[in-house]
Write a structure and sequence with these properties.
146 residues, two-stranded antiparallel ribbon, single chain
Length: 146
Amino acid sequence: MQDTASPSKNRMQTTHYFWNYLPLLLQILAAVGLGAGMVAGSFLIGKHRRTISKLETYECGIVAEGDARGRFSVRFYMVAMLFILFDVEVVFLLPWAVIYRHLPAITGSRYFGFWEMVVYLGFVLVGFFYILKKGVLNWAADRGDL
């Protein structure tokens, strides 16, 4: 004889939904516990001697000269931002290259994906020629801060 009183109850999970996350919680606790245990073990076991040579500034084996809080040229930040910008643009090329052979079936046009990338690379080249024209990448003719 079937239980017809609650047919939806048979289809539902028998355990509480949050119990599914118990393995994840245990893994997070194990990782935090392992990290805290390593730090605590190092603190308790390690030798702590504060000598003059240990308290000195160490920079790649070279004796530090001057103040570490010196100003950087704006050009440094410009080049860093341009690197990130062009790096992200290259990342956009990868998914396109992966599905390039399937684009005619997806778009319905044989050359749509190709011309789409030509336009995209055109915009990238316009930006590249703009920064070349502005002289951002010309380090030899440093004019101080741009």
